[in-house]
Amino acid sequence: MSEKRVKLKRVMRPIDVWGLALGAIIGWGCFVLPGTAFLPKAGPGGTAMGMLIGALLIIVIAVSYGYLIRKFPISGGEFIYAKEAFGKRNAFVCGWAMILAYWSLIPLNATALAMISRYLFPGIVQQGLLYEIAGWEVYAGEVILASAAIILMALLNIRGIKQAAWIQTAIALTLVGCILVITFLVFCISDWSNLAPAFPEGRRWWKGVFSIVAMAPWAFIGFDCIPQSAEEYNFSHKKSTFIMISAVLVAAIMYIAVCAVTAVGVEPWQQLLDSRNAWPTGYVVRNTMGLAGIIVLGVAMFCAVVSGMNAFYISTSRLMYAMAKEGSLPKWFEHLSPKYGTPTNAIIFTMAMSLFAPWFGREILLWIVDMTSVGAAIVFAYTTGSAAVIGYRNGSKKYAVFGIIGCLFSLFFLSLLIIPGMPGYLTFQSRIVLFVWILIGVAFYFTIRKSYVKGKN
């Protein structure tokens, strides 16, 4: 079989895996949501508290990931863990949720390039108006830009994980550097008293804090990309837990820093939010640092978008490869390039599916991404539950306890998304898209059930 002739190459260093995780976590939302969601909901103080609490909850979940990576150092991650703990049927449910959560973030990041161009270079890429979908104007120039990015990142991943990982590391470090530079300079220029009040007036502080905590699955999705490349580490898998925890903590600091930059640059910061400014963070950086600042911010956003695309290309393709090896996807996805040792067919399929997305406008993509948090919460629950079961089987009480606690946190996140009236309850459109994806999964499962469930383990 193909997997015996060609194997994934063990070329990823610890810094590469860290860059993979951080680049997946920090995306365009880090730069756009401070002025549209974080500050209005919780203020600078509430955002900082909520992000730190959310990061701590995710770290508890990450401990289970680290344990399972050591137990099963192969591609497939959560899909493999669910299979070992709960059987093939549950593994398919987990894998199906993962595919949607990972794949959808590739075209979302690609279309964010067009959004960046609208802010930084208005009118240049917005050429050739095609139509309008859900209030979002679709331009031929933006479709071409997003499609080119999707194709370029696919080609990069086909040519090998070593090259893709090196670029991912460089971009992630550049991203962190740019945010630190902007934060340092803006705080040197601005009056720190502008951060007051720490919480929005007229709202209880704890409600603001927990509205940010509710966003943790979305904010930190990406650390879980690490297990997908476990078969390609050139170092001890014992280091994976520290890598994930450090990536989550650095990401939390980046979110807090960009939010603080947005708040500190204007007195009072509520005035900035009340205005019709389309991008409060960009407005503050331009006002305090001028053109140089907005260029550095643009570089940071570009790095966030590209690193996110690259990370989820790696994760999606490795997941499909692992699922194909287990018989839950067609064998076609199991093919590895003889020259580069990469899952070429899975990468090509991911690229082809992503190329459809830019034509449907960003709002429809946001409906998909809104409900991918459900997928992420389900995957977290399966993984922590798997850690609890496998830890108990192997006499590791510590990881069994961590798994139980992490599973409760995951179910808490899920409840925030699917229970009416909760802070993160899905929009009607997102619920429809989620229902359609579930129906497709059910139909596909019944086509493979006999060969998959009754096949060899």
Produce the secondary structure layout.
Layout: H1 2-5, H2 14-25, H3 29-71, H4 78-86, H5 88-120, E1 129-133, E2 136-139, H6 140-158, H7 161-189, H8 205-213, H9 216-220, H10 240-264, H11 269-274, H12 280-325, H13 344-356, H14 362-393, H15 397-418, H16 428-453
Antiparallel strand pairs: 1-2
Helix pairs in contact: 2-7, 2-10, 2-12, 3-8, 3-10, 3-12, 3-14, 3-15, 4-5, 4-14, 5-6, 5-12, 5-13, 5-14, 5-16, 6-12, 6-13, 7-10, 7-12, 10-12, 12-13, 14-15, 14-16
Which features does this protein show?
single chain; 457 residues; mainly alpha; Amino acid/polyamine transporter I; two-stranded antiparallel ribbon; 16 helices; globular
**If helices are DSSP runs of H or I spanning 4 or more residues, what is the number of helices?**
16
Level-2 CATH architecture: Up-down Bundle
The main sheet orders its strands as 1-2
Indicate the mean pLDDT.
85
Query: What structural class is derived from the secondary structure elements?
Result: mainly alpha
CATH homologous superfamily caption: Amino acid/polyamine transporter I
| Low-confidence spans | 1-5
In total, the number of strands is 2
Protein model, in words:
With 457 residues, this protein is mainly α. The protein has 16 helices and 2 strands. The protein has a two-stranded antiparallel sheet with strand order 1-2. A hairpin with a 2-residue loop joins β1 and β2. The N terminus is likely disordered.
What does this entry show, briefly?
Strands 1-2 form a two-stranded antiparallel ribbon.
